Amino acid sequence: MQFYTIGQAARLLGVSPDTARRWADAGRVATHRDESGRRLIDGRDLAAFSVEIAGSVTEGETPYTSARNAFPGIVTAVKLGDVAAQVEIQAGPHRLVSLLTREAVEELGLEVGMEATARVKSTNVHIDRT
Fold first, then answer.
1. Which of 10, 52, 59, 111 has the fewest CB within 10 Å, making it most exposed?
2. Angstrom distances, CA of residue 117 to CA of 18, 82, 130
3. What is the pLDDT of residue 122?
């Protein structure tokens, strides 16, 4: 299982480290300490929390931006079929879905809770493991 520091989680959620720390302090997302005392968030917990907060954003709260074609985020769902697969990534307030081959998902080792980048070109979404 992959774990994230408060700073990494903040970057994936599109907020400041202080905001992520306050959310952790308030118990909105569970953390635990590693042997060096750093607070870590389980990847699956972070994935679930990213979906939760993205759903709570109302229209007008998201700042206007010139979205680039790379969306670093966290994998929130992987659905495998016999040949095809569907991967969902939550990148801050953006939910991206990519349809790709099962073989590609297995080669990348994609699973819920891991960090990944969705790259968008026209109507295609490509997934890079980071």
1. 59
2. 23, 24, 7
3. 67
